[in-house]
Amino acid sequence: MLLHVPQVFTRDEVRRIRQALEEADWQDGRITAGYQSAQTKHNLQLAEDDPLAREISEAMLARLWQHPLFMSAALPHKVFPPLFNCYTAGGHFGFHVDNAVRQVRNSAERVRTDLSSTLFFSDPDEYDGGELVIEDTYGSQRIKLPAGDLVLYPSTSIHKVEPVTRGARFASFFWTQSLVREDAQRALLFEMDQAIQSLTRDVPDHPALVRLTGNYPSLLRRWVAV
Prior knowledge:
The chain is an alpha+beta fold. Helix content is 32%, strand content 32%. It contains 6 helices and 16 strands. The mean pLDDT is 94.
């Protein structure tokens, strides 16, 4: 399931974050890449222990854990601390698949990467190129979202970032270990949850709501794998 999650941050929040990122101490993005990814990764990245990265990361996670669409779709159990990158002057990242497990820096904590996310801090008209290209069941999806919006997709997807030929593309990326490991099961639960919310809003007294709201936790209980 590929999902657009709008307005994780407001326009004013994005403006402040973007200004801070423009003044940050960027490093070669290959410092966090595995052997294969390092061959095709050409971008800039904030160090994981950079104070600015930690500050924005904490704000992001606080916001996401309160975002109903993200929570419904991801069913998060653990989230790898968000990282931050910048693509400019031809920077790109060729086709690759994310690592199955990520080790949190200076910690014994490990996160199984069920879902990948990119949160954009640059608007589409601020740069040329830089599309996130995701290969899925329906072909190639080319993603270039407004600043403050996030895209969520399975970490098993082959994906790349096209070269940025003008301007700069600032973004955050991270991985989520879901309560439900299988993407098809998460997608079914998401669709059911959205249907329940629509019925609750439109026909709150419908008797089917009782059965639906009982079936959802039953399925979740059956499929939870942590």
